[in-house]
Amino acid sequence: MKKLRIDILSDLVCPWCFIGYTRLEKVLGQLSVDKQLQPEIHWHPFELNPTLPAGGEVLNQYLQTKYQMTAKQRQLNQQKITALGNEVGIDFQFTADMRIYNTRKAHQLLMWAARSQQQTPLQKALFLAYFQEGKVMDDTDTLLDIAVAQGLDRRDCRQVLTDPGWSSAVVQTEKQWLEAGIQAVPAMIIEQHILLCGARPVTELHDTLDGLLDTLPSLH
């Protein structure tokens, strides 16, 4: 058995983060069987849109303005993302009225969930809620429902969402990663020294992790 630490910076409204993690999950599943791998995943916040107001903005308009895209370019980009998602079992649902939201509250929950080792189930549930179910991701009750469905306590989660200390912790953590040179997500740090930026292909992830595993000691 070999333990492998992977730190992931992501935002739940980033489709490339969803694709990147799902590819990683596929590779880890293969390696867990082939090499008795025990992955240890730690999620870290990276807000793409920290100044978005409550209720968010219409996604299509937001993308075209922020990235100076035409409607056609944005449509083609979403078609590409949808196709890549389908390859790994993600059913992206981009609709005309889909909105993009401030994710600070979600990151507060994710940071707190590390204490009970529930980060990954919660992160996956947040991805699904946004990209496949069209949930309002800055709504407190929506976030609480998602968290409770993953076995977390509603009262504890509500305290996390209303505690300004957790909001400050998210901001401070993001600042530290920015100062460390992380400018975009997804970003994965393998064993605290190998940085993989972007949604890397499955074959590349497999080769990178497989080669690294050969250098790690086995657990006894």
From TrEMBL:
Stretches of the chain forming a coiled coil according to its record: none
InterPro entries per UniProt: DSBA-like_thioredoxin_dom (IPR001853), Thioredoxin-like_sf (IPR036249)
Residue span, DSBA-like thioredoxin domain: 6-209
SUPFAM superfamilies: Thioredoxin-like
Protein name, as recorded: DsbA family oxidoreductase
